[in-house]
Amino acid sequence: MSQTPAGQNSQSLLFLTDEQLRQGIEAMFFAYRGFTADPDRILEGLAYGRAHHRAIHFINRSPGTTVNNLLGILGVTKQSLNRVLRALISDGLVDSRVGEEDKRERNLYLTDKGEALERELSNAQRERMRMAFRTAGPEAVAGFRQVLEAMMDEEMRRHYVALKDRTA
Amino acid sequence: MSQTPAGQNSQSLLFLTDEQLRQGIEAMFFAYRGFTADPDRILEGLAYGRAHHRAIHFINRSPGTTVNNLLGILGVTKQSLNRVLRALISDGLVDSRVGEEDKRERNLYLTDKGEALERELSNAQRERMRMAFRTAGPEAVAGFRQVLEAMMDEEMRRHYVALKDRTA
DNA sequence: TTGGAGTGTCAACAAGGCTGACATATCGTT
DNA sequence: AACGATATGTCAGCCTTGTTGACACTCCAA
């Protein structure tokens, strides 16, 4: 469907053919497997999974974040997130403190133990990303980010940009 | 850990700082959500999920493929895949034929009905990819693919390249 | 012809999504 | 003070999709 005709525009649109798009789709699929492989390996054995990793990552990224904010970023239900947080809190990886201004809120922080696991996980994941970046080079990395950003839903892009700009 | 020092090499290595790597990680996370969002929406309502989509995609891509080959591509256990295939076969989306040379094998094909669903799913997913590609431009797309390819595990890269070259 | 390797199937279980319902505490407004 | 709205936590139950274990059929080579 909608094969882009080739060789007629001065600006070649060959990169928008269905075949090229399909290759992009498969690249995303196969690369995402690699992307999660290293943390998954670390987590198995421990009683945690990918959901715990995500929570730990974003709590580390925004110390003191609220449950509600985390829900927006992760895009899951509070029941799902609560199950994960309960485990992390009772295992002493996450600290949940009643909000100072608004006592209905809970502010989430990693404990020292939580930070240790976060470092272990993100080191592994960063190492793979570093290899990929180094192999591909800075220009490719810029393109990588442009395409991914354009692929996000609007709400996700807002979260992504907000996190990015905070440390820019 | 391992902050890359800046401003000392003639070739700037700023793109390998931990901060840049973390942004790459978050970009992958948020973009993958967008990547799967459209097919997921179509599948909900039907009695199928993401696993069915993946099976349909790769059977369409390699008609007559065996269960074992599909296992390697999808990276799940044969029991997981079998559950999905059983549903697709009994619903008349996939045709499973006993191998001609080796009767232990099953060759898998999409039926007309299966191809119809495949088109619906891949149209939705391609449309998002097309928008992202068009927004980012051909140079960015080339970089996107280079980085993703470098991020794959070796075995996944083999599958990716094999599929890519078949239609090149 | 027999045993091992390859392949496919069934059963049972676990993780982690989901919905719905409800309790509690707090906030803000009236 | 009272009330509705908001933020969070929890219980129960369901679904998808991953896992292991057990087993049957087919093929091939010793």
Largest beta-sheet characterization of chain A:
3 strands, antiparallel
What is the overall pLDDT average of chain A? 92
Instruction: Please give the oligomerization state of what you see.
Output: homodimer
* CA-CA gap between termini of chain A: 42 Å
Structural class of chain A: mainly alpha
Instruction: Evaluate the radius of gyration of chain A.
Output: 20 Å
Give the total of beta strands of chain A: 3
Strand arrangement across the biggest beta sheet of chain A = 1-3-2
The two chains with the largest interface, and their residue counts, are: A-B, 65 and 65 residues
Number of helices of chain A: 7
Our estimate of the beta-strand percent of chain A is: 5-15%
